[in-house]
Amino acid sequence: MTLQETLELQVKAAIKALFQSELKTVEFQATRKEFAGDVTVVVFPMLRVVKGNPAVIGEQVGQYLLDNVEVVKGFNVVKGFLNIEISDSYYLEFFQSIKDKSNFGFADQRDDTAIMVEYSSPNTNKPLHLGHVRNVLLGYSVAEILKASGKKVYKTQIINDRGIHICKSMLAWQRFGNGETPSSTGLKGDKLVGNYYVKFDQEYKSEIAKLVAQGQSEEEAKKNAPLLLEAQQMLIKWEAGDEDVVALWKKMNQWVYDGFDVTYKNIGVDFDTYYYESDTYLLGKEFVAEGLNSGVFFKKEDGSVWCDLTDDGLDEKIVLRSDGTAVYMTQDIGTAIQRIKDYPDVGGMVYTVGNEQDYHFKVLFLILKKLGFEWAKNLFHLSYGMVDLPSGKMKSREGTVVDADDLVQEMTDTAEEISNELGKLEDYSTDEKQTLYKTIGLGALKYYILKVDPKKRILFDPKESIDFQGNTGPFIQYTYARIQSILRKANVDENVTLSTVDVSLHDKEKQLIKQLELFPEVIQNAAEQHSPALIANYTYDLVKEFNSFYQNVSILGADSDEEKNFRVGLSKSVSQTIKNAFQLLGIGVPERM
RNA sequence: GGUCGCAUAGCUCAGCUGGAUAGAGCACCUGCCUUCUAAGCAGGCGGUCCUAGGUUCGAAUCCUAGUGCGAUCACCA
């Protein structure tokens, strides 16, 4: 039983004994620093059940707790707040119970029903950019957090590998590529293909300009440009299974996949399984046909198939074009169903997708419910805000994107510069240094993105580099490294331990233990809210508390061996917790920096 | 226009199911490296919590209306 659970029972007992009344809930909060005490009970809500002066009630309840609860060693009442002082031995015992747990905070898997988390839904016609980076970091972290909260998790992605946009880069390569390949040019495959996507757009625009000059309207020209017509032809050929087109499609997509793999590895994320739209859109069509039979969908005169959602306060939504081809919704229906077929233990899914698609997912989930899938009620759209540049939205075609690989490299370079200035790593080998720069640079980037509430948009200014001081990844990594340094020098005798009775904890020590105590609950909260930001903020608070302890209390120079060993152990637990928390954010921790 | 989201210090952000005098970091100013790593610590400066009503013993937090910004409402994805 946790301290709070114990106190809750006892407060209820107090109210029953003193006022013969039943209290449903008790409201707790951490005692503010300016008052004496550790835990505070708010008296005001009790006034609904017990009539009287809150200060007097507080006094009476406080006295009851003092008399009946061993760990309560004092109390004071300020206005309607009952501040309870907890004995140091309680905190010491708690610390003893967790100090050797390397997985402190993580719950055991206690649920056979798995959750599938989807993140990264790239188009295979251009490289990954900063927007994808937020998506990937968020999804990966939420997956790790769900695992740590006791869930079984599959990490997956959906790859948007078909459609007109893919044909555009294929066509441009065919037309202007002169047989270029990643190996002939030394370019990453995704970059190479992305160049031809841009090339298509340029050529397309100049064709439009030509047609406009010949007297066509802008609108006509956009539809009639030969390049676009050719791309559309190519799509039709693809859908018909034309050998040459399919071969080209396979070849170029493979270049892109190889490039993506490098980027994912670079960022440090992975997947358990992959889904391709080209594999699932047909299944979607099947279920549209089935839904048509069962009356979930209806067909319009032109042959297009729709779902009427007006009763649910939404509009009608198309699920199949009049020419019978699949739309986005069709393949998403197919993908969802395919996943449950492949992994029958999956009982719910999390889709990490930007908030521009809020409406799409609202509709998708509703349609899956209407189709009668039990698991449809456990679908969650992890909707996150866009990453914008000072100049506005990023646009691949116009080249105004922050490339993912470049970004990681820049962060690594910055870490190197700062490290060199500080000059603490003279004895490190080149390899060790490079690994460390990467850890720090990625730590800065990931923390910067994950510490903000997912639903808020991020304004990223490439000119103002990401900080390495204050509330940042490197600051937290630095604290970890500092603790490792102490552990290397500590030389403690495991047999010498602090007695749990008759000890007096330093205020900073107690604050640290209290902060550690919160970790398991923070993980549960973060899982429920799908928010890595809660983990980031918790870790920052823990580290700030530790640095204050470190700077104000001598660890290795403690008065006695018992005290020294305790402080070393406490530091070790803090570093273990930092490591565990950062693991949930996908951030590594260095032994030195 | 309908719907959804956001609005807190000069800037970037916390603020849990409503609770005490709204907190951090950056920037700016003051101190602290002969002591465990100064990517640090201690302190200072800085607020009509977008506005107006309402609910409540009590509102940054909940409700209503409005303002601003963004997204969305495609036989695009």
Automatic annotation (TrEMBL):
Subcellular location: Cytoplasm
Family to which this protein belongs: Belongs to the class-I aminoacyl-tRNA synthetase family.
Primary subcellular site in the record, as a coarse category: cytoplasm
Record has ATP-binding as a keyword: yes
Source species of the chain: Winogradskyella marina
Gene behind this protein: argS
SMART domains, A to Z: Arg_tRNA_synt_N, DALR_1
Entries under Pfam families matching the protein: Arg_tRNA_synt_N, DALR_1, tRNA-synt_1d
Keyword Protein biosynthesis included in the entry's annotation: yes
Oligomer and partners: Monomer.
EC number assigned by the record: 6.1.1.19
Full protein name: Arginine--tRNA ligase
Alphabetized InterPro entries for the sequence: aa-tRNA-synth_I_CS, Arg-tRNA-ligase, Arg-tRNA-synth_N, Arg-tRNA-synth_N_sf, ArgRS_core, DALR_anticod-bd, Rossmann-like_a/b/a_fold, tRNAsynth_Ia_anticodon-bd
